Amino acid sequence: MASHSGLKYVLETKKGYVKDDGSFTDKISEAKIIDFWQFGFGPSATEVYKRLGFNDQEVLESGVSFYTIVPSYEGRDMLGIDSYELMGYDFQEALNKSKSDYYSYNLYDDKNCLEYERMLRDKLLNYYQTYQRVVTVLTLGSDTLNLYQTNDKDMEVEGGILKHYYSDRGSVFRYSIPLKNPHVEKHFDIDTTSQNYYNHFQQEGLLEYFIDKFNDNRFVWGLKFNTRLLDIQIVDDELVMYVDDWNNYNGYKVAKAINTAIREFYSKKEMHITRMFGSYVLLQKIDGELKAVLATPVPIKYCPLMVKLLKEVGGKQSEDLIEAIRNSDTKTQTRMMCELINEVVIKGGYFDTSRPLNSCEANVLFGASETISSAFKSDMLDASVIVSNNLGTIITTNDSNTQGAVKRMTGLFYTSPNAEIVDTAKKSGIIPVFPYTANIDQVAGVREAIKRGYKRIAVTLAAQDNELLEEIKKLEAEGVTIYKFGLCSTGISEETAKKMLENVDIIWSCASKYVKELIEPNALAQVGIKIPVHIMTKKGWELVHNHLEYMINGKINEVDLVKGDEKPVFLNGEDGIKKLVKRDIRKCNDCPHPCI
Questions:
Q1: pLDDT digits over 268-291, tens only?
Q2: In angstroms, rounded to a whole number, what is the distance separating the alpha carbons of residues 49 and 54?
Q3: pLDDT at position 179, please?
């Protein structure tokens, strides 16, 4: 704890102010008053507490603070600054006025100093009651509390917004932070009741949990032991609370503690939305166990990658799922998809928050993370903005943490945060953009990467989120190059495909009708035939060319990038990578169908 700045002070703890006998009170008038000359300005509050002969272990663990009763002489000319600033004076004006008051009110005298502080409080309240309009009224039991907007600017702290109001009880602070909502209606065709249940599953019980957490920990968080949570509500998927006696100096510490408590709750009520073989799957933790509980029918009848991976998995779930897809048996499909996720994905550790986040293993021959990892090895990238389970949008900084963060994930559209894996990520050189909420927001991720000084950035977008490519392209400024990867394109709209055509560098075709119709004819090069990867720009080719050379461990001659029949196409054959042109490629007999 920092040294105090008072000639007289009391000790404040989690349990209250310390009395002469070591017990506690919530009234300053009953507390033990300590003169500075007893211990000087050197010892911490905890050390003073122990020197007085007190040793309550709970107090020692939670800490002790100074609460100044009579300020030191050096600090008295600063007493009015905060009050005058709240009355509209700028800092220099407030400083000058406060210094002038030192002599006008003879603040050298202790009694005058205390009277001056009381006068300031009355003057400040009179100012707001006379000149400022009421912006919010809080209902506190049978009473109401008028809140006036101060001149303080709103503070963005740890993803939330802190607003400062004044009232007849002094300062009141409003802290608001967005809450998690998966908006399941974007992916699942379910009734309104089910939508409401899943969308608010992670909010249910949060208020009660947080109030208990606040009451137990407010002093440890940096607030006063008797700070009151005046009001707390969830309004339009936003947690809004009003707290008295919160100051801007400890704003970040308190906000971090609040966000940490919310993250703990999210971890207990974990939820994810992923995609497997074009089917969206919702995972939910109930009674401490994470399970797939909802899946959409597989939208296509056949995909060579899907069949290959299912056969690798093996087992009855895979066989039953393949058969259900062939027979268009949607009821069996969705049931087997959930079983497959439970047996293979969850038990395979994909959502294990203790998993390592560094890996050199290439999971597929020509995936996005593999291409990005090769670019890192060749010093072509400074950072990549990708998505990872339990982390949301992240910034990776080298080849191994890029590959390790995604494994064989085939699409992630919602995820829940976890403190353990956030810590692992940071130790692995990964930057979680939303360490408390695990939000998926690739635009914000790119902005954060640029803010941190990265200049060569790769970013991946999946499914309908490819609509954000246009916004991301606008972030490219002088000195900043953004390599844009369009993924998971099965089922995208025509409008999304058009935005990909105009803005993307590399596109994975999956089983997209519009990628086949709009994008394939405009690609400058192609990798693969069954599930082609389309290279749309020279910039994209630089990364693809580099990855191909890593695959063959050699050089690839200069290639003419052209559209149409002369477009270069690279295949992986028995003899390794070979180059053909589009007109020499026969019609594919083993491609995904139907394209949608």
A1: 999 999 998 899 999 999 999 999
A2: 6
A3: 94
Tokens of 364: 């597929």
Distance CA 572, CA 149 (A): 66
Provide mean pLDDT across the span 542-554.
Answer: 91
**380 or 512: which carries more pLDDT confidence?**
380
Name which of 407, 409, 453, 411 is nearest 431 in CA terms. 453
DSSP collapsed to 3 states, 152-191: CCCEEECCEEEEEEEECCEEEEEEEEECCCCCHHHCCCCC
Q: What angle do CA 479, 480, 483 make, to 5 degrees?
A: 140
CA distances from 301 to 294, 489, 594, 595 (A): 20, 16, 7, 9
- The SS3 assignment for 455 reads coil
- Identify the pLDDT of residue 406: 85
Q: DSSP string of 243-309? A: EES--GGGHHHHHHHHHHHHHHHHHHT-EEEEEETTEEEEEEEETTEEEEEEEPPPSSSB-HHHHHH
Does residue 485 contact residue 515 with C-beta atoms inside 8 Å?
no
Length of the chain: 596
CA geometry: angle at 75 spanning 71 and 77, to 5°?
115
Q: How many CA atoms lie within 13 A of 127 on its CB side?
A: 18
- Whole-number pLDDT of residue 409: 67
Across the range 36-42, mean pLDDT stands at 88
Residues 6+ apart with CB under 8 A from 246: 162, 171, 173, 175, 223, 227, 254
**Where residue 248 falls among pLDDT bands split at 50, 70, 90?**
low
Query: pTM score > 0.70 for this model?
Result: yes
Residue 413 near residue 440 (C-beta atoms within 8 A): yes
Strand partners, 132: none
User: How far apart are alpha carbons 309 and 299 in whole angstroms?
Assistant: 17
The tokens describing 524, both together, are 């400058």
Residue 253: partners with Cβ closer than 8 Å, 6 or more residues away? 221, 222
Contact residues for 142 (Cβ-Cβ < 8 A; gap 6+): none
* 5 pLDDT above the threshold of 80: no
Q: Which two tokens stand for residue 57?
A: 């272990």
Q: How many CB atoms lie within 10 A of CB 281?
A: 26
Q: Are 227 and 246 in contact (CB under 8 A)?
A: yes
CB atoms within 10 A of CB 410: 21
Mean pLDDT score, 448-454 = 97
What single string gives the DSSP state of each residue in 574-593? TTEEEEEEGGGPPPPSS--B
* Residue the block writes with tokens 């803010």: 451
Q: CA quadruple 435, 441, 444, 449: dihedral positive or negative? A: positive
Q: 6 Cβ partners below 8 Å, 6+ apart?
A: 36, 66, 68, 69, 70, 71, 72, 75
Q: How confident is the model at residue 577 (pLDDT cuts 50, 70, 90)?
A: confident
- Which residues have a Cβ under 8 Å from the Cβ of 109 and sit 6 or more positions away? none
Task: Answer whether residue 363 shows pLDDT above 70.
Answer: no
Sign of the dihedral through C-alpha 231, 234, 236, 240: positive
pLDDT tens for each residue of 84-136? 999 999 999 999 999 999 999 999 999 999 999 999 999 999 999 999 999 99
Average of per-residue pLDDT values in the chain:
92
Sign, CA torsion 271/384/402/489: positive
Q: Which two tokens stand for residue 309?
A: 């991976």
Tokens, residue 215: 């009451």
